[in-house]
Write a structure and sequence with these properties.
It contains four helices and two strands; from the N terminus they run H-E-E-H-H-H. It has helices at about 1-5, 50-55, 60-65, 75-90, and strands spanning about 25, 45.
Length: about 100
């Protein structure tokens, strides 16, 4: 799958559970909510441990951009992407729409 071509390492890196080697595909917006598993921008390559953590902790996952609501459009998907990067790189605060990462 194309998502593994982008990264063979886990794209979540949730410490201390991460095993670093990506084995699972995670949908940010699930198919049940209107997302597509064939949309590479909707998918992340995750290790099994991070995938389980994200699935078992929906509030944390929503806050950190690993899942979105069914009604999420392009703006919400962009906000989720920024939330993931901010959490991963330790950026505190909110980014405006004009700021690039």
């Amino acid at each position: 799958m194309e998502v593994f071509a982008r990264s063979s390492r886990c794209e979540a890196n949730v410490e201390p559970v991460c095993s670093y080697h990506a084995t699972d595909v995670h949908e940010i917006k699930t198919r049940a909510r209107g997302g597509s598993i064939t949309d590479v921008d909707n998918c992340l390559a995750l290790c099994r441990n991070c995938h389980r953590f994200i699935t078992d902790n929906p509030a944390w996952s929503l806050e950190h951009g690993y899942v979105v609501h069914a009604w999420a459009g392009e703006a919400e998907m962009l906000a989720a992407s920024r939330a993931r990067r901010a959490w991963q790189y330790g950026v505190i605060g909110y980014l405006s729409n004009d700021e690039a990462f």
